[in-house]
Structure formats: C-alpha cells, structure tokens
Specification:
alpha/beta, six-stranded mixed sheet, 7 helices, 10 strands, 34% helix
C-alpha cells in the first residue's frame, strides 16, 4: 500500500498578470521501501511539489494522502514531526545550536531523553562523514558541504518513514555525494522508508528505483 498518494493535485497562485500552475494535476503513489528521484528543469514545479508532500502547503485542488488520510484532515505539525523529514537545499540549520544539537533537534521536540537523542545524533553524524571534533562546533564554523551533511544527519536521526530531499548533494563533492546517496538508498531498502529526492544530478537519479520527470507542473514519463 502506498504511504503517500497524490490525487489530481494542483497548486497554483495568482500574480498581478496571470495564474501560475506550479503543480498542475499530479496523481501518483509513493511506496515505502522505494527510492524516487524527481528531475526536471528549474522552475518546472519540483520544489513546490516536494513542499506540498511535506505538508508545508496544502494543494489548491486535489489532495495528498498519508496512509489513506488527506493531509487537510491531519495535524500537519504532528505529521512533519513524526512522519516526515525534509532535507532542505539551504540546510535550515539553527546557527545558535551546535552541530550535535542540530542533528538531535527533532528528537528533542519529541521529548526523547537528551542522552539518548545525543547518542543517536552522533551516530548519524559519523555516518555522513563528520568527526567528533566537529560535533561541538556551530554551523557557521563549517563549510557548505559540511553543513549539508549535518542537515542530512538530522533527517536520519529523526527516524521518519518519509524522507524528502531537495538537491541533497548540491554542495557535496563526488565522494561525499556517493556516501549520501548510499545512505538514502539504505533508508529505502533496509529501513523501509519512502525516499523522494529532487535532483539535477544524473548520478543521483541513476541510483533511484524510479525516476520521475516534471515538466510545466506535470509528471511526464518516457
């Protein structure tokens, strides 16, 4: 059974001159245990689509369902806290928290005991290639690629069954990109997560179980 389903989902907005259909009637089923890549030109609607899947916005028309229930009928804050982890292109780290505290933050919100949360966070930080001497640093003391790895470790630490990632390897070199893609594949295939990645990187798309192309707000298939 699909964990995420879109039904004729549309997301549009009106500017001074016209109505812009960022997503224009997408129907698709996303399953656990699968690694999906969404590719397409800039401005085609990929990031907006991901944002609606994350519950950050509701569709203008149609619906997104999580385990058969429309996001419109759910507490979307709770949905994001317990079921979805988002890896943002601009990292979205807290500059006043250490690297370890950033990675543990979703667990703190869930009131996981601090010692346990910190241990999980440190394990995931090591998995993405960060070292113990970096755990107590603040994000602005790291490179862009290292900050991206903190953001990915935070998503891993959350233990969510849905992982949504917007260009997760965009700031990483080839070796670290390969490591991160490997971790995302493991989350899908070994931890039974639904992993959906928006990417321009053909090397990432090649590793996906399914590659979906967006064009003008629509999913298109070869």
């Amino acid at each position: 059974m699909a964990i995420l389903t879109t039904n004729e989902m549309k997301y549009f907005y009106r500017n001074k001159y016209r109505t812009v259909y960022a997503v224009n009637g997408v129907s698709y089923e996303f399953e656990q245990g699968r690694f999906y890549a969404i590719v397409g030109a800039s401005g085609c609607g990929k990031t907006t689509f991901l944002s609606v899947l994350a519950g950050l916005d509701l569709p203008t028309e149609g619906s997104v369902e999580f385990d058969g229930t429309s996001l419109a009928d759910l507490d979307r804050d709770d949905y994001r806290l317990r079921h979805v982890s988002v890896i943002y292109q601009n990292f979205n780290l807290f500059m006043n928290l250490t690297v370890a505290e950033n990675a543990a933050y979703p667990l703190y919100l869930r009131r996981t005991p601090k010692k346990e949360a910190d241990a999980v966070a440190e394990e995931k930080l090591k998995l993405v290639g960060l070292t113990e001497d970096q755990f107590k640093r603040f994000p602005n003391m790291l490179s862009g690629g290292e900050q991206q790895r903190v953001a990915i470790a935070r998503a891993l630490a959350a233990g969510s069954k849905i992982i949504l990632a917007d260009e997760p390897t965009g700031n990483l070199d080839t070796a670290n990109s390969k490591n991160i893609v490997g971790r995302l594949k493991e989350l899908a295939h070994k931890s039974n997560c639904c992993v959906i990645v928006v990417t321009h990187d053909s090397a990432v798309a090649e590793q996906a179980d399914e590659v979906l192309k967006m064009r003008d707000g629509l999913l298109v298939f070869d």
